[in-house]
Design a protein that fits this description.
Helices cover 49% and strands 21% of the residues. It is α+β, with helices and mostly antiparallel strands. It has a domain of 77 residues: 2-Layer Sandwich (Alpha-Beta Plaits). It has a 4-stranded antiparallel β-sheet with strand order 2-3-1-4, with helices on one face. The protein is elongated, with a radius of gyration of 36 Å. The chain starts with a helix and ends in an 8-residue tail after the last strand.
Length: 154
Amino acid sequence: MNKAVNLRDTKKLLQLATGCIFFILFASAGNLMAQTRGKLEVIKDPLVDTLAARRLRGLAGGGAGAAAFSSNGYRVQIFTGTNRTDAFNAQNKFQRLYPDIRTYITYREPNFKVRVGDFRTRMEASKMMAQLRSAFPVLFIISEKINPPKLDAQ
């Protein structure tokens, strides 16, 4: 019986010690996880700013950097056919009507395609398509990568 009492006391003492240890760990964990406000120092090469400035200048001037920033948009297809001369005639006809809007001729065997504009929204392309209905019989709005508009250098 003496051994049974000692065994029970030992178990209770062990449970009490385990509980105390867990309590101490949880109480101190809050202190370990707390963050204090600090100061962040960024160390970078000064050439990073120079490269960023050159890139922006290239975009503003419509330089080589501008072509790298193409995005998804819309163009209006004004011609599809197998005759190259007809494709160039359609392009010239459009350029006489709208000299400030870019035109693109592509060839994928056996067809030439003439697409116009760099529209960011489908609504802009639809407006252009409505203006072209009388001049070009078959028109489609095509979703593809477009070139950014030219920025005015000031």
